[in-house]
C-alpha cells in the first residue's frame, strides 16, 4: 500500500468496500516497461482497468491500447489516443463491430480463424491482421488457453487467406498466460511464431510483427521477477529464433501495469464456525467474487490481505463473500492464515487489486452496489 492510498483512506474514510488506485504506480510501471523492452510498443490492455483517469495518464505517456470491444475503443479515443494507436485485439467480434471500429479509423485486427478473416475483409478492407496462435500457458496463475488462438500450422493458412482477400497479413500474436512467473515462457511461443514467419516468407508473404501479449505479473503473496528480467529473456528468445531479422514487437501489459497500483478496503461482516467442534473459522467479508474478486475462482489469484491485527497469532480460515450464492467463497481449498484476534467490524486491506476487479464487479447482484473506485 502506498502512502498516497493510506492517506486517502485515513482522510476520506469511504463507506463500504472500495478500490483505490494510485496513478503514480502506473506511471512508474509504464516507464519500467518502456525501459525493459525499448524496441516494443506498449499496447495497454484496457480490460484490466478502463478507468478514464488511468487511460488518460497512459495516453499522455505515449501508450497504445489493446481493446476488446467498440466501447473500449471509444474509451481509448476519449482518453486522447488516435486510431493508429489502437488494436482491436479480441478474436471474437461481430461484423458490425468490425465495421464500427473501421469507421473510427482502426486498422489493426486480431484473428484466429478464416471465418474471422472473412468478416474483416468485408467490413474493414485493406486492414492489417495478426493471427493468434495457441500457446502453452504452463505455470501461469490465470491460464488463457483454448478459447483464443489456433494451431501454428493453421495460422499459416489463416494469414494466406487474409492475403488473398486483400488484407495485410501483418503478424502473429500469442499469450503465455496471465500472471506468468517464468520469464522463459515466451521462448517456446517465439519458436512457433518464427516457424510461421519462415513458412509464409517461402510462400511470398512477409510478416512484420510479433505481438508478445501480456502475462507480465503483479506481485501478490509471492515475489515475481522484475520487468527488466522479462525484457532480457524475451530479447534473448527473439535473437535465438529470428537472428538478426527481429520483427516489430508489441506488448500488451494489463495486470503488470495496474495490478500493484490498487488496493481494496473491505470489512469483516461475520466470523463463525459450522459446528461446535469445527476447528475452521469462516471469515465473511463485505466483498467477494461478485463484488470484484472473480479471479479468486479456483483460488487462482491469491491476494495479500492486511488486517489491523497483523502480528497476532494466526490460524487458517476460510474466506467468503457476502452474497447468497454458494460459489461466493474466495479461499477454502487452501485456507488463509489470518489473526485469531480478528473481529467482526475490522477493516481489511486487499492488496494488488488494481487489475480486473472493478470491471469484474457485478452491477447489482443480490442488491449489492458495484465496487466503488477512486483514482488518485
UniProtKB/TrEMBL annotation:
One BP term from GO: putrescine biosynthetic process from arginine, via ornithine
Transcription regulation keyword on record: no
Residues with PTM N6-(pyridoxal phosphate)lysine: 47
Cofactor(s) listed in the protein's UniProt record: pyridoxal 5'-phosphate
Pfam families: Orn_Arg_deC_N
Known catalytic reactions: L-ornithine + H(+) = putrescine + CO2
Xref: InterPro entries: Ala_racemase/Decarboxylase_C, De-COase2_N, De-COase2_pyr-phos_BS, Orn/DAP/Arg_de-COase, Orn_de-COase, PLP-binding_barrel
GO CC annotations, alphabetized: cytoplasm
Pathway(s) it belongs to: Amine and polyamine biosynthesis; putrescine biosynthesis via L-ornithine pathway; putrescine from L-ornithine: step 1/1
Keywords carried by this UniProt record: Lyase, Pyridoxal phosphate
Start and end residues of each Orn/DAP/Arg decarboxylase 2 N-terminal domain: 24-258
Statement: the UniProt record of this protein carries the keyword Lyase: yes
EC number(s) stated in the UniProt entry for this protein: 4.1.1.17
GO terms assigned for molecular function: ornithine decarboxylase activity
Active-site residues, record numbering mapped to chain: 324 (proton donor)
Family matches, as PANTHER family: ARGININE/DIAMINOPIMELATE/ORNITHINE DECARBOXYLASE, ORNITHINE DECARBOXYLASE 1-RELATED
Family of the protein in this entry: Belongs to the Orn/Lys/Arg decarboxylase class-II family.
Entry protein name: ornithine decarboxylase
Source species of the chain: Bauldia litoralis
Amino acid at each position: 500500500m502506498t502512502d498516497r492510498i493510506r492517506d486517502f483512506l485515513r482522510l476520506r474514510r469511504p463507506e463500504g468496500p472500495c478500490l483505490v488506485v494510485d496513478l503514480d504506480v502506473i506511471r512508474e510501471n509504464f516507464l519500467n516497461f518502456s525501459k525493459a523492452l525499448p524496441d516494443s510498443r506498449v499496447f495497454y490492455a484496457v480490460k484490466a482497468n478502463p478507468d478514464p483517469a488511468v487511460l488518460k495518464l497512459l495516453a499522455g505517456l505515449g501508450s497504445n491500447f489493446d481493446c476488446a470491444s467498440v466501447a473500449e475503443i471509444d474509451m481509448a479515443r476519449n482518453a486522447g489516443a488516435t486510431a493508429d494507436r489502437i488494436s482491436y485485439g479480441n478474436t471474437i467480434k461481430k461484423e458490425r463491430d468490425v465495421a464500427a471500429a473501421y469507421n473510427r479509423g482502426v486498422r489493426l485486427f486480431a484473428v484466429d480463424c478464416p471465418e474471422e478473416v472473412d468478416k474483416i475483409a468485408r467490413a474493414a478492407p485493406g486492414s492489417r491482421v495478426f493471427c493468434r496462435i495457441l500457446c502453452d500457458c504452463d505455470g501461469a496463475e490465470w491460464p488463457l488457453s483454448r478459447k483464443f488462438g489456433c494451431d501454428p500450422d493453421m495460422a499459416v493458412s489463416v494469414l494466406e487467406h487474409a492475403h488473398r482477400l486483400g488484407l495485410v497479413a501483418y503478424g502473429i500474436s500469442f499469450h503465455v498466460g496471465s500472471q506468468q512467473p517464468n520469464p522463459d515462457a515466451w521462448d517456446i511461443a517465439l519458436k512457433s511464431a518464427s516457424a510461421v514467419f519462415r513458412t509464409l516468407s517461402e510462400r511470398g508473404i512477409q510478416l512484420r510483427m510479433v505481438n508478445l501479449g501480456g502475462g507480465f505479473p503483479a506481485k501478490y503473496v509471492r515475489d515475481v521477477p522484475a520487468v527488466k528480467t522479462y525484457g532480457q529473456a524475451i530479447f534473448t528468445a527473439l535473437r535465438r529464433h529470428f537472428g538478426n531479422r527481429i520483427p516489430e514487437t508489441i506488448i500488451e501489459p494489463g495486470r503488470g501495469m495496474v495490478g500493484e497500483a490498487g488496493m481494496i478496503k473491505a470489512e469483516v461482516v461475520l466470523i463463525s464456525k459450522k459446528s461446535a467442534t469445527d476447528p475452521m473459522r469462516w471469515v465473511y467479508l463485505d466483498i467477494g467474487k461478485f463484488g470484484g474478486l472473480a479471479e479468486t475462482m479456483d483460488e487462482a489469484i491469491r491476494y495479500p490481505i492486511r488486517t489491523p491485527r497483523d502480528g497476532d497469532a494466526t490460524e487458517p480460515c476460510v474466506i467468503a463473500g457476502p452474497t447468497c450464492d454458494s460459489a461466493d467463497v474466495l479461499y477454502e481449498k487452501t485456507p488463509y492464515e489470518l489473526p485469531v484476534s480478528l473481529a467482526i467490524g475490522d477493516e481489511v486491506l486487499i492488496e494488488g487489486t488494481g487489475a480486473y476487479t472493478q470491471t469484474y464487479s457485478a452491477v447489482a447482484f443480490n442488491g449489492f452496489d458495484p465496487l466503488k473506485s477512486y483514482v488518485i
